[in-house]
Every structure is written in C-alpha cells, then in structure tokens.
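PROTOCOL LOG
Step 1. Enter all chains and additional molecules of the complex.
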Amino acid sequence: MAKWQAYGAKNMNAKKDFPILKRRINGKEIAYLDNAATTQKPKCVLDAMDDYYTMHNANIHRGIYKISEEATEMYEKAHENAGRFVDAGFQEMVFTRNTTESINLVAYSLLPEFQKGDEIVLSRMEHHSNLVPWQHVAKMSGARLKYIELLEDGSIDMESAKKAISRKTKLVSIAHMSNVLGTINDAREIGRIAHSNGAMIMVDGAQSVPHFQISVKKLDCDFLAFSAHKMLGPTGIGCLYGKKEILEGMRPFLYGGEMIREVSYESAKFNELPWKFEAGTQNIAGAIGFDRAIGYLRSIGMDNIRDHGKMILAYATRRLSEIEGLRIIGNSRHKGSIISFDFRGIPPHDMAAILDAEGICIRAGHHCAMPLMKYLGVNGTSRASFYIYNTKEDADRIANGIEKGRKLFKV
Amino acid sequence: MGMEKLYLENIIDHFKHPRNYGVVENADIQHHDHNPLCGDDISITIKIDRGKISDVKFQGHGCAISQASASMLTEKIKGKNIGDVKGIKSDDVIKLLGIPLSPLRMKCALLGFQVMTAGISKHKYGLREHGI
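Step 2. Run joint prediction.
Step 3. Record the structure below.
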C-alpha cells in the first residue's frame, strides 16, 4: 500500500500534464477510462510536434540544408528510441501507421510464402486487426486458420495451444494482452512452442507495450506490433519490430520513394533496413511526438507504470465486484488494467451513455472483437480501461455512476 | 444532458416490457438488420390481412433506445392500413420517443423503423398480390 501512495501522489501529478483532462463534460471533470482505445497526450508531446512543424519542418533523408538535417536527425532519433524501448536494434524497428498496418505489412510481405497445407494459428481472443489480415492470407494462399481455445477465466488454454501448433504451422500470431479481457498471455511460451515446430511468432503488443517493460530479446518473438497512440503518442504512427535476419529476407510491403537504393526503368534495388519498409514521406511529426511520449514514459518508469496498473486494476475490480448484478468478463490472474463487464438489465450502450452524463468515458460494444463476443456468448460488453493518469477516484466514480444507472433503469 | 431526460419512464417501461415481442407465424413480411457500431439488432415480422397490418411482432437485442423505439413502433402500426404505415416518417418515430437524440443515438432510435420500411418495400410485390 505504501507503494500505491507513493506512486499515487506522483500519479496525481501525471493528470496535470494532460491538458484535455482539465476539460469539463456536463460540468464534471473527465474521468477518461477508454485507454485501451487510445490514450490522452501530455503537453510535452503536443509541444514536440508543434516545435517540429514550427521550427524544423522539412522532408527527411534528402535535403542538403540545415532544417532538413535537423528533421532527419529528429526522425532517426525517434527510430532509435522506439527500438531501444523494446530492446530492438536500429535496423529492426520499422515505423508504420499503427498496429493494424504493422500486422498487414507482415501478412502482405509473407503472403507469397504461404501455400495450401500451411497453417496459421491465432487465439480466440484476437482483435479484428490480428484476425482479418490472416483471413485474407488464408483465402489467397489456401492456408488454413486454426484457433487456440480459451479457459473459463479468459486466459489461453496452453493445452489447446500445444494441440493447435504443429509442424504444419507456419506462423502463430497472438495478442500479448487482450483489449477485451485484459488477459496477459504468455507470449514467450507460445513463441517457444511455435519455434519448436519451426513456425514464426508474431506478437500483437498494442495493449501490452504501453503497460509494461518488454524486451523482444527476452520474449524471443519474430515480430512485435504496437501503436504510439495507445502510449501517449499521436495517432498515425506505429511500430513493427522484426528480427533482422527475417526482415532482410522479406519483400517490401509498400513500394516507391525512399525505400529504394537505385532505380532504373526496368528494376529497383531496395534500401537497407529499416528504410526498405518505409516507402514515401513518413509521418515525421508523429515520430517526433512518439519519441517525446517514450521519453515521458521512461521518466515515470515502466515498472512504476506496471505497479500503478496492477494497483488500480485491483482497486477497480474490488469496487465493481461489490456491485450486485455486475459480472466482470475476464478474470485471469495475469491481467492488465482493462475491465470488461456486463450489468444485468442495462445494455452496454446505455451504460456508456449514463456514465457519459457523469463525465466518465468508457467503451461499449464488441471492441473490434466480434468473434470473441460470440465465443463468450455476449452481444457486447462495457469496458473501462485505465492508464497512468487514472486515480482511485476515477474507479470510485465509475462505481457510483453504475449505481446511478441502476436507479434510472430500476434494476 | 441529464440522463433522466433520455431515459424517460416510458422508454424504460417499453425496454423492460417490450410490446408485441416475438415472431408472427406465417408472416407476409419479415426483415432483419443490425447496427454494426453498437450491436443493436432487430427483426420484424408482419402479417397483412386485407391491406391492414393484422399482426406485427419484433425481436432483438441492443440498447434501451433501440428496443423501446421498436416496441413503440409496433404499437403504432398494429391494425393500421399498410398505405398509412408507408406514410410514417422518421420524425414521427422520434416524436414517439419524445426525447432529444444525438446523431449517434438517432441510429439506435431509427433501427426498428428502418427494418420495418425495408421489409415493407422488399415485399411490395407480394403485397400487390394481396390486392393492394
């Protein structure tokens, strides 16, 4: 508890760094609890992007003049820091638009490698972004999709994983942390099973990278995808980590300027890593904003962020569990600070609207995981997801808001 | 906006005790649709007898606004002339609810109406056979 208080005090300070959290909705302070969808941006991130456009705006990697050199340096520094953040080398970190594009990059680049008889293994809890690209690959190549089943508590059934992954498996792609259930999966162990069968492992880190320290070396994954906007950075910039030897052998995803070394009318030689995968003018301001977000997260410390997440999850889980008629969906022992719930008598959309009137932002619906909803036997859930600026008070407010809803709906 | 204005007693009542809930047997019109954004889902079945809606039922799940609105709509059209029902406008449905709606909630409120309208227009050829 001492640690909660210690970080709690620091956390109260975090709120002040986010201008949007000073806004009032319906006369009430915002309790922003939709962090699994996107996080808010601290002032320093907004300032960093503003500074780039105001003082250093130029295209990168070509201008032989001061401001272009500055922009190039800022962009490459962002690359370096993004790689370092997950323990990846400079050439192993590719900037994309977001997690979805990172997964598509791998899917499209590897598409010609798949053939009939190959299998792609996913889990039942995947977000559409780690599902639909593989459906496309399967359809185009004749490969087969297989799914790892879940246990009652919303965690991966490792026995099912061992059964699903075989010598036929070419690639396993799995969420590191579920955006619906909050479950943190043992991606390392699943990767080990994949590797022992000669398959590659891709980890969807959209939810996990913002919440705890990840080392791609320790995880021993072949690919890791994540988005800046879920970790205090701007939208429109994301990352794909890939093992150097794998990226080197892969075809580019997008073709055009910047990703080439030499071009003739007949052919082209591709640029070195990571630029081979970054065609066209990049989201330079986005990368710079992301770099600043990484710096901000590091100044707090990922271990503190994980501790805060654990504590707020424990507190909010306790508060919500006390509410009669409320059922938390996803009760794994290994969870990040995401709570999906079902409340008897109030549909998720109405729940979100009732809480909105109290200034509380939550998500309602299928959370881009329609097959999972069907698998769980629900039409949708209400979801509260927490991040560094959320406090115990925010958890109290959602609990009180739900009680208000109960009165309104007379349930 | 205060939630008391949105979730009027009448709306909560229709949501918790939907009128004309279920499926009409041997229906002349049946149609289903859903709102992918929030997962509202409504099916409507209608029986036509001599140009009149002799029976109508709806079934579905989703938010209170979508379900209450569909429930109210079935009450409004039951026993009505099919020609009159075709004349119902979306504004009439909003009036039925009697609450202010954001553009997002408008989609919920009008789902039942859209399902009904699509069902009727899909079957207009069939209706002609019934002598309309």
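Step 4. Note key features.
The interface with chain A takes residues 1-4, 6-7, 12, 15-16, 37-41, 61-65, 105, 108 of chain B (CB under 8 Å).
The longest strand of chain B covers residues 40-49.
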